């Protein structure tokens, strides 16, 4: 299955955290033609706070939190964070995930509550396994896949579409984090990140191990030269509405992040 009704959006993803150059990153990413910037919550870093720094320096760039764990924050707490941020509703997607919780109904009710608390905001849902992808089709505006190569992303897209059809609603936007490493040590950086997520166990381990067993040992893009990134993204572009470039830079500096961002905009 391919996404042939429009050109997929290109988004950039960064781990949350306080950095003095976030505004400069946003300006540069916007100038490169990216449609959106995603920032995920991490220990010691708020995705919402990271986006605030970017929003103040940009005009067109859409923003997305990817994602806040519902097991760690209630809908009320999430809504309070968003309201306090002052981020514009028309630019922001509030992404949530199950976190350490396993209940689909808890996620469903959490999104229902967020619909009331954050009227006017797009709501995203992280989906690793098929049941969460189907739920995303039924309740979310954006379904964010993670650790899915092109073949698995295509299958998950069909599940999202099935969930939307069963709920009698339009198919939500299907996005995915695509990890990209460029230059010296790219292979090692992606392999290390992949092994880290396998170590988390659960859905991450199952989905990664299954793809490795089917012959897809590298889930993402590695390239020694910047020109190799664009062609390697073609498979993702064919099945997604939004390709979120999740950079794996050699170091946590503005220039290293921008090296990845620039490489992903190059076409064959």
Short descriptors:
11 helices, disordered N terminus, eight-stranded parallel barrel, 44% helix, 9 strands, 21% strand, alpha/beta, single chain, TIM Barrel, globular, 268 residues
Write the layout of secondary structure elements.
Layout: E1 9-15, H1 22-31, E2 36-40, H2 47-55, E3 62-69, H3 75-85, E4 92-97, H4 104-117, E5 122-127, H5 130-139, E6 142-145, H6 150-167, E7 173-182, H7 186-200, H8 202-213, E8 221-223, H9 229-232, H10 234-237, E9 242-247, H11 254-265
Parallel strand pairs: 1-2, 1-9, 2-3, 3-4, 4-5, 5-6, 6-7, 7-8, 7-9
Widest beta sheet: strand line-up: 1-2-3-4-5-6-7-9
Name the CATH superfamily assignment. Answer: Luciferase-like domain
State the helicity in percent bands: 40-55%
**Chain oligomer state:** single chain
Care to give the gist of this entry?
The protein is α/β, with parallel strands linked by helices and 268 residues long. Helix content is 44%, strand content 21%.
Any overview of this molecule?
The structure is a single chain. By secondary structure, this protein is an alpha/beta fold. The protein has a single domain, classed as Alpha-Beta Barrel (TIM Barrel), CATH 3.20.20. It has 11 helices and 9 strands. Strands 1-2-3-4-5-6-7-9 form an 8-stranded parallel β-barrel, surrounded by 7 helices. Strand 5 (122-127), helix 5 and strand 6 form a beta-alpha-beta unit. Helix 3 packs parallel to helix 4 (104-117) and helix 5 packs across helix 6 (150-167). The radius of gyration is 17 Å and the shape is globular.
